[in-house]
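Example complex used in Figure S2.
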Amino acid sequence: MKPGVTLLTIGELSARSGVAPSALRFYEERGLIHSVRTGGNQRRYERSELRRVSFIRIAQQVGVSLERIREALAELPERRTPTKADWTRLSARWRADLDARIALLERLRDTLDGCIGCGCLSLQSCALYNPGDQLAAQGPGPRKLLA
Amino acid sequence: MKPGVTLLTIGELSARSGVAPSALRFYEERGLIHSVRTGGNQRRYERSELRRVSFIRIAQQVGVSLERIREALAELPERRTPTKADWTRLSARWRADLDARIALLERLRDTLDGCIGCGCLSLQSCALYNPGDQLAAQGPGPRKLLA
DNA sequence: CCTTGAGTTCAAGTGCACTTTAACTTGCAC
DNA sequence: GTGCAAGTTAAAGTGCACTTGAACTCAAGG
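Predicted assembly (294 residues):
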């Protein structure tokens, strides 16, 4: 066994990432991660896939859809460990989005208290709910939350 | 017509809140909002319901589930405009949660850049992904994201 | 060898948050 | 009083992110 070429089984990747095997297969189906196959058709994962999986989970935690994550990961080299430049590109792309989400959360936190005194959370005047009618204009549904 | 008792139709509430009528009926079915009925069985909403709807949408934007929102709203007086104390209670309840979500987002934003240099996003060492193994221990699935 | 736990595929099922459809009724404007 | 947009219900459908089940194969220890 050549050192450094230790591939992970799906069970091992699952254990190390905390993601169910079924979810890992699902991610692969959707093109978010990749595997090589053994002679007996079993999946084997390179260690770099662990990094991808962790990235997927982190992004999900903050509400990014799998499709958006797939797009982002598609810009990383398909099977090789990403370089500094790869991560920098991805980071820059998402920064505005993350900043916006942070701002929204902070507004909610700060305004929940603030509104208590100001009679807020009435649509006409609430700066939180109605920052330029932008939110309402985007239509209903959780589908569009990060659009 | 007594002044101050202007009830809203579902269409009006929809227009003012930016939430589809079907969603409003759905919220009512789930006990998040309430209506009174006309002789002909049509819904009429008090103005205070507008405040509830806006609250629902804001909370959804930051990833709170309808069930959690329902619980929160259940602590507000069912049909009456909430008092300062009502909002304060609700705000205090959610504060820790919101703070945690903000912290996670900020960590992702700051660490995405940081990890570029530190070889991070490998599960062993990444403080973002693995703050005390807490996230992984919570199991997979977007269902539990805010549990 | 043989057992057994881990892995495989494909199809169907689940939970959430709604939307759509169909068939029907109300209520305001003229 | 009549027309028609806006309202009503119940049931089925949709999109996302998975999970579960059935039926089967692989791989490593005793």
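The mean pLDDT of chain B is 73. Residues 20, 22-23, 26, 30, 38-42, 60, 65-67, 142-143 of chain B lie near DNA strand C (CB under 10 Å from a C1').
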